[in-house]
Structure formats: structure tokens, C-alpha cells
Amino acid sequence: MPVRLPDRIARPLIKGAKRPMEGSRSSKAASVLDLPVEHGDFAALEGHKHVLLVTYKRDGGAVPTPVWFARDGERLYVWTEVEAFKAKRVRRDPRALLAPCSPIGAPLGPPIAARGRVLEAAAERDHAAQVIRRRWGIGRRLFERLSRPLTEVHYLEFVPAGEDAGPGA
């Protein structure tokens, strides 16, 4: 079982590790909002390694974020740090868009309307972790070894939104 560092030590380490990546997000990420939204399954994401997850702030503003993902049938799983705003936004407003993207967030296709939730039950979290581990193999295991002692994660689950859900799910 990994040793968990106290938050007063872990937070500065995590924030410092992210700084080099902050400026690497594609300037084209927001252009996903100009594309027509599709309603249906996640088949268009097959073969892609990253999705641009669009969640919504309290004021309705869209926030596109590139993330790793794994599919299990018609469910798509993402993991994020417990304190990440995307988890807080999904908890407050389940509407989301998912679009295939490059590792830095340049859209590679139209967004798909979805509805998300933060997984609370241990069995659901374990299932999501297993699906992600299976999809990402050794890369995920290395990530877990290096980061799990530093931070806890939330697992987010997304399902396709129906036609009647409106823009952004």
C-alpha cells in the first residue's frame, strides 16, 4: 500500500509538477465550441487516446480540458485529482461535451453531448480504475506509482446525452 504524504507537503509538489504543462494547452481547444454538437454514442472516440472534456462553470462559461480516458461500452471514464475544478463542475452541472483531441487539446472531431457524474461508491470507483488500467497498461501503473502517494483521485463517468438534452448535453 503506498504511503500518502501529508497535504502540506504533497500540494506544493503537485502544483510545481504541473507548472511546465500549464502553457502547453492548445490555443485551438476553445474552437471545439464552434463545432456542431453530435448526439449519440461514443463510437467516434474509438482509436483516440485523449478527449477534450468541456465542463461548465457556474456562470455558464465552458472550460475545455484535454484528458486521458477509457471506454467500457457506452460509459467513458476519466480520472482527476480530488481538488480539480472539473470534478467540482461535473458534480454541480452534469452537462458535458467530449471531443477527440490531441494530447494538448487541439480538437480532432466534433463534440459529443454527454452527462457526467463523480463516482462515489467504492465498487464503481474500483471498476473505473480497472477499466482505465486495462486501457492504459503500464503508463497508468507508472502514473499510479509516482502520483498516488502525492494525491487522491476522483473518477468521473460520462454517458451519451439524448437528443432532447440540448447543447452541451
In short:
With 169 residues, this protein is of the alpha+beta class. It is built from three helices and seven strands.
Helix share bin: 25-40%
Order of the strands making up the biggest sheet: 2-1-5-6-7-4-3
* Major pleated sheet: 7 strands, antiparallel
Beta percentage is: 25-35%
* Model regions low in confidence, pLDDT < 50 over at least 5 residues: 16-22
The span between the termini is 39 Å
Q: Mean of residue pLDDT? A: 83
CATH topology: Pnp Oxidase, Chain A
Our count of helices gives 3
In terms of structural class, how would the helical and strand content be classed?
alpha+beta
Write down the domain tally. Answer: 1
Calculate Rg over CA atoms.
Answer: 16 Å
Q: Write the H/E string, N to C.
A: HEEEEHEEHE
- The outline comes out as globular
CATH homologous superfamily title: Electron Transport, Fmn-binding Protein, Chain A
Organism: Patulibacter medicamentivorans
Domain Pyridoxamine 5'-phosphate oxidase N-terminal: 44-137
Keywords: Oxidoreductase
InterPro entries: F420H2_bilvrd_red/Heme_oxyg (IPR052019), PPOX_F420-dep_Rv2061_put (IPR019965), Pyridox_Oxase_N (IPR011576), Split_barrel_FMN-bd (IPR012349)
